[in-house]
TrEMBL record:
This is Pantothenate kinase. GO terms for molecular function: kinase activity. It holds the Pfam family MeaB. It comes from the Bacteria. PANTHER family: URIDINE KINASE.
Amino acid sequence: MTGVSGVTGASASPALLDLPEGEVAALLPRVPRRGAAHPAVLGIAGAPGAGKSTLTATLVAAARAEGLRVAEVGMDGYHLAQELLIARGQTEIKGAPATFDAAGYVHLLRRIRAGERVYAPRYERGAGNPIANAVEVDPAVDLVITEGNYLLLPEGAWAGVRGELDAAWFLELASQVRQERLLARHLAHGKDPERARAFAYGSDEHNARAVAASRERADLVLRLRPAAPPSGRMGA
């Protein structure tokens, strides 16, 4: 595994890379390598619906196929509980930066970098709540991949995330495609069409603009594109 160990700052200008979706394994040489006493930490940021979870799952599988020990920790595990959002009147902006425990997330990353064994929460999208202590991160793993919308935000407690990442990638996707995916996701998880559209084109889009403004703090801006169909004769 190649790369540079140690915490990096924001790049002066992030590198840009267009890559077919089927060639995610080609990204492996770009992941940071393990430090002497702790795993490397790779952060994948991007707007809601950009495909961060899919990219992460594919990258984890590719890394494991190469014999690397990898753990996955999602920022979404630090969603505030639905009960608390109801009490605070924040259910209609669920997913906004203020509806996460950003300080708790930063603390988790610091513990990982300190070489501790940690038990991270996992967000259950269907239930709409995080599950505490659901993901074990062994300090012996080579790489921890963490993904979420707000890894590169420079405001508030979120500002502490970037310094805990050995490398940060920003995933981009065409807005129309991203919004269509978000709408389908909201419908699949039980929202009626009107409320699903309100989230996809309202709150989610507001959050996407905030995320886009943090793009320059990444090391790499990644644009995945569908693989070209195989060439051949056109048949009936």
